[in-house]
Design goal:
The chain is built from 31 helices and 33 strands. Helix 7 crosses helix 8 (247-255), helix 18 runs antiparallel to helix 20 (657-685) and helix 18 runs parallel beside helix 28 (843-869). The radius of gyration is 50 Å and the shape is elongated.
Length: 940
């Protein structure tokens, strides 16, 4: 707010000074009543304010004259009213331009075309606000002029706001993170670069340095400025200057060797404005600009534009230069003023001027302030201007709610040879594209996100490879690399007497990655820490963020909080927090052979041995002599056969098909059980057992035992802040000897129950202690080690690519084997309870075996039942007599046979049953034969 008030005060002071020294040449109106023109005046005055002798002015002048001539000759616009144009030259001077503007307004103009300077526009806007004269500027591109402070300022060209966002999109498209802005230190330059900074920030890029020089600065000042920026890291230069003096920047850059390979130059619309005015192109000037990328206001190739170009060719023969985009906007500005006046008059508007009561002549002043009069219809005319919508030579003229032309767009040009080629377009609605914006406007509703695209660019040095956009600064300062000075686990990183002063696994990985980069990286290693204890790694990362170091190389863990301060490379080693505890060997005991199975598993297995033995006995008893005998002998056979299948040593042969089917499935089950038992028993006999009750991070949290944490590790804050473990439980451990002693002592003797540390340290620790300690539970965090750089450092991206290349070609593993090779320990304990086999793992096998037995028994008993029913009642007496002799009084038919008779039938041999059935069938045939004979000989 203070800056805004200061700007207003300075502007008013300047206006007061101008009014004090300005003496009007003629008083054109009386100081009393207003002078009112006729309803349709015969003529109207508009003004034109620009620098005649400038790249823009030389194009704008003929364009305005051509537009005035066409308006006056067109009977459809301002019929009966002639439009007069009054020119005033601002002479490239803010002071003189303001004086000329005041002299222009005293001519009772209804509108002013111009100015081309944003500085003059700022001052004049206060004047036209007071006098209600719309200011149609074709060249003032300062974004701040769109403020509500300037209601009568109407920009008929594109604001630099959009141009800066186009540049930001280009910077993102080519993957650059930092740029250097070179600009003229005036209103247009400062405010434009300010918008550029905001636009780049949204793309996670930034302006590394703002190189400003004063308007009209000599070549020596520009030379000193470019020498300074050439010593910096960024090689992407955004040049935002004015068209008349801008080429001097490239002339100096050429002399300094800054137009060669590796440099990027992006110019705003001032450069195409200058080049379009050169007819024909100047080879010397074009030679300065090889490889430069520039933006130019986009105007569609319509018939109106082609007609204008044809007319311009005739004007050129009269001594004018080529036309640029500002000539198109100036031409359309005249037509905008004329069309709006026509609408204004047709709607009943009147052109009248009245004296401003605030401007009064006094006896003490020689100024005739009454000559500056208010345009009474200015407010209404302004609203008419803002509502206009027509197509001009520059494209569609229509204003949005912020008084900007709709559909702002730019051509993206690449200068090469004696001209330039169009490599794409940019618009605020379609972004970067190789398709003309007006073609895409109708397709926006059908397109969610468009991928930016440009044709290939030929950069300075005649290369098509996109420059990196940065180098190490040529100021003699190498990269400052902080290295933690550890007192433990020195295999990762440690101090070294020989160059480069440090050594270890992390240093070798970094050096190998640096060697893969296509450019040299001057660097110096600086130890961080006192050497008496491990440094605090959070503090180390903070020092990088504070620019005390350029990078940190070592065993630096990538954490969320640290990524908010610095940029990390791709992780070169996986890491995570684990819990390590002491272990002890379990001595064997006489009952160890029972531990592979749980009690339920033993019981079900034994039951199935007996069950299968009974099933096989039932299936084999009738047809296999080995399964017959006395009850005692058959019972022994069942037990022997059942348990002998455990060792596949059963001596009884199975004869029946059903019996063999059951036996095959059971033997498969026994094979699986035997194998599992053997494996589990082997594991149990060689198991290591915890010497504490800690089984993982959960049990560690629930206990109250002390926990060891490595000095300087992020694990301390993680356990306290994330897992809510009391700090009083944490014990700082500095060396590997502290690890061993505290774990062996345990909580009862002042030690710790477990140590929480990162996996790479624990692997090295267990290898060094010959696996006397083990991890329990799972790795409960996932992270990695990376190299830390300052935010937006391009080196972090290049090194990430190099680390991936090291991983792919195997060099990363070779470095790991060089420094960290050791005896491998099983990371997890084989807990005894976990090795015991339960019924859960085998119920499927038992289910299959049980179903097979059920099916076999069902088939067997169905078969018995069918055989049993084949005995007829007529012959039951003889049959029963043969099966079991008994008195005639106890004989019964098969239909009323007792359960004992059925069991006797089942116990009978299969051969005897078949013989009985065969005999029964033969007797039935014999009985049937006499019966049939007797019937045939009976009398009729």
């Amino acid at each position: 707010m203070e800056a805004f008030l200061t700007h207003v005060c300075k502007t008013r002071t300047l206006l007061t000074l101008i009014l004090c020294i300005w003496v009007p040449m003629e008083v054109m109106a009386q100081t009393g009543n207003a002078t009112v023109s006729s309803k349709r005046p015969s003529s109207l005055n508009i003004g034109a304010l620009f620098t005649f002798d400038s790249a823009i002015g030389r194009s704008v002048g003929p364009a305005i004259l051509a537009a005035i001539e066409e308006v006056n000759s067109d009977s459809s616009v301002l019929e009966g009213t002639k439009l007069n144009i009054i020119f005033h030259d601002t002479n490239c001077s803010g002071f003189l331009g303001t004086v000329e503007a005041l002299q222009l307004i005293e001519n009772d103009v209804v509108a002013a075309i111009g100015p081309q300077s944003s500085g003059i526009a700022h001052v004049i806007s206060h004047v036209v606000n007071e006098l209600h004269v719309p200011l149609l500027s074709f060249g003032a591109t300062d974004p701040s002029l769109a403020a509500l402070q300037y209601p009568y300022f109407v920009r008929t060209t594109q604001s630099d706001y959009f141009q800066m966002y186009a540049i930001a999109d280009m910077v993102e498209y080519f993957g650059w993170r930092e740029v250097i802005a070179i600009f003229v230190d005036d209103d247009c330059g400062r405010n434009g670069i300010s918008v550029l900074g905001d636009a780049l920030a949204k793309k996670r890029s930034k302006i590394a340095y703002k190189a400003a020089f004063s308007p009209g600065a000599p070549l020596s000042d520009i030379n000193d400025l470019l020498v300074g920026v050439n010593l910096m890291e960024s090689r992407v230069y955004i040049v935002h200057v004015n068209p008349d003096s801008g080429l001097s920047v490239f002339s100096v850059a050429k002399d300094l060797g800054m137009m060669t390979s590796g440099y990027v130059w992006i110019a705003t619309d001032w450069l195409p404005t200058n080049l379009d005015s050169l007819v024909p192109p100047d080879p010397d000037k074009m030679n300065l600009l090889q490889g430069v990328v520039a933006l130019r206001h986009h105007s569609p190739d319509t018939d109106l534009k082609k007609s204008f170009a044809s007319k311009w060719s005739k004007l050129k023969h009269e001594g004018s230069s080529g036309f640029n985009s500002y000539a198109l906007y100036a031409y359309d500005s005249v037509w905008l003023a004329a069309r709006a006046l026509d609408v204004f008059l047709n709607e009943g508007g009147t052109v009248s001027f009245s004296s401003d009561p605030k401007l009064k002549d006094t006896n003490r002043s020689a100024l005739h302030l009454a000559s500056l009069r208010i345009f009474d219809g200015g407010q209404r005319y302004l609203q008419t201007l803002l509502k206009m919508n027509f197509t001009g030579v520059s494209g569609q003229l229509q204003f949005d709610l912020e008084k900007n032309l709709i559909h702002p767009a730019y051509d993206v040009l690449n200068i090469g040879g004696t001209g330039f080629r169009k490599i794409g377009y940019w618009s605020n609605s379609t972004g970067l594209s190789t398709t003309e914006p007006e073609t895409l406007y109708g397709k926006l509703s059908n397109t969610s996100i468009r991928t930016p695209h440009l044709y290939s660019v030929i950069w300075p040095g005649e290369t098509i490879a996109t420059p990196r956009g940065w180098v190490f600064p040529n100021n003699g300062k190498p990269l400052r690399i902080a290295v933690p000075e550890r007192v433990s686990y020195k295999d990762f990183v440690s101090k070294d007497k020989s160059p480069p002063g440090v050594r270890g696994y992390c240093i070798d990985v970094f050096e190998a990655a640096i060697n893969l980069l296509p450019y040299p990286v001057p660097r110096t290693y600086m130890l961080y820490g006192g050497g008496k204890r491990n440094p605090q790694y959070n503090d180390l990362v903070s020092q990088v963020a504070l620019n005390n170091f350029d990078a940190a190389v070592g065993d630096v863990t990538i954490t969320t909080n640290r990524t908010r301060m610095v940029d990390f490379t791709q992780p070169y080693m996986e890491s995570g927090l684990v819990v390590v505890v002491p272990v002890k060997q379990v001595k064997s005991n006489p009952w160890a052979f029972l531990k592979p199975f749980t009690i339920e598993m033993w019981m079900v297995t034994g039951a199935f041995f007996l069950f299968v033995g009974v099933v096989v006995w039932i299936l084999e008893h009738r047809i296999n002599q080995e399964f017959r005998g006395s009850p005692r002998q058959q019972l022994m056979t069942i037990f022997w056969f059942s348990f002998s299948t455990m060792f596949f040593s059963h001596r009884e042969n199975t004869v029946s098909t059903l019996g063999r089917l059951v036996l095959i499935i059971w033997l498969f089950v026994v094979l699986i059980i035997n194998s599992s038992y053997t494996a589990s028993l082997t594991s149990i006999l060689t198991v290591q057992q915890l010497s504490s009750r800690i089984e993982g991070i959960d049990s560690l949290i629930s206990s109250n035992d002390p926990i060891g944490v490595q000095d300087g590790s992020f694990a301390w804050k993680y356990l306290v802040n994330e897992l809510n473990i009391a700090e009083s439980r944490l014990v700082t451990l500095k060396t590997m000897e502290d690890y061993i002693k505290t774990l062996q002592d345990g909580p009862k003797r002042g030690g710790v129950a477990a140590i929480v540390d990162e996996l790479p340290y624990i692997e090295l620790f267990m290898s060094a202690t010959k696996c006397a300690f083990r991890t329990v539970g799972q790795e409960f965090t996932k992270s990695g080690w990376g190299f830390a750089f300052q935010r937006d450092s391009p080196l972090a991206v290049d090194l990430s690519t190099a680390i991936l290349q090291l991983s792919e070609n195997g060099d990363l593993q070779k470095i790991h084997n060089k420094w960290l090779r050791g005896s491998e320990c099983s990371m997890q304990l084989n807990e005894m309870d976990a090795d015991r086999l339960s019924l859960t793992s085998f119920w499927g096998l038992f289910l299959i075996c049980g179903i097979a037995c059920f099916i076999a028994l069902s088939v067997f008993f169905c078969r018995i039942f069918l055989q049993y029913r084949r005995f007829s009642p007529e012959n039951v007496e003889g049959d029963v007599e043969e099966i079991e002799p008994a008195p005639r009084s106890s004989r019964r038919s098969l239909r009323t046979t007792s359960f004992k008779d059925l069991m006797d039938f089942v116990d009978k041999k299969e051969v005897e049953i078949k013989h009985m059935l065969k005999r029964k069938s033969s007797d039935n045939k014999q009985e049937a034969s006499p019966s049939s004979d007797g019937k045939s000989h009976s009398p009729s």
